[in-house]
Task: inverse folding
């Protein structure tokens, strides 16, 4: 899919969310110069939303059929808050497992090596996790060691046999 996005003000990049409503899968890609490309999408019905700093689009429906390469053009408009940072979840809906609102974290810029020091943990993240979650997911996840173990067990399916079939 080769597509484009426009906005009433200049933007460096925006996040494009392609929500497959049939399979409950969300793909996210970035724009470059307003253009974006998503590859290897499953056939099905999608809802496309583009978000940039202080910008967002209305949801747009898209049908992807096997063997086809549909194009979509999305227009963004200004958000009520010009400093609103793009996210796949509205901030008011963001809650932790115990129902408490997530704490807003101040953005700190650091190098990749500072965030992910070379070693076994970084190797595991690069081989197994970052492909789906992206590089920016993990620095914002403040968890204890047991919280990380639970998250890893969940992603590896350790507790799947404990669920009601």
Result:
């Amino acid at each position: 899919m080769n597509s484009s996005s426009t906005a009433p003000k200049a933007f460096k990049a925006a996040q494009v969310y392609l929500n497959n409503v049939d399979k409950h899968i969300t793909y996210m890609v970035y724009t470059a110069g307003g253009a974006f490309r998503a590859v290897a999408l499953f056939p099905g019905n999608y809802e496309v939303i583009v978000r940039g700093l202080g910008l967002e689009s209305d949801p747009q429906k898209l049908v992807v059929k096997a063997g086809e390469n549909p194009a979509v053009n999305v227009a963004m408009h200004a958000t009520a808050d010009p400093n609103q940072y793009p996210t796949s979840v509205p901030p008011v809906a963001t809650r932790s497992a115990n129902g408490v609102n997530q704490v807003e974290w101040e953005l700190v810029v650091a190098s990749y090596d500072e965030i992910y020091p070379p070693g076994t943990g970084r190797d595991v993240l690069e081989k197994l996790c970052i492909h789906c979650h992206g590089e920016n997911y993990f620095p914002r996840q403040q968890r204890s060691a047991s919280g990380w173990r639970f998250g890893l067990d969940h992603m590896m399916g350790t507790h799947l046999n404990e669920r009601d079939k």
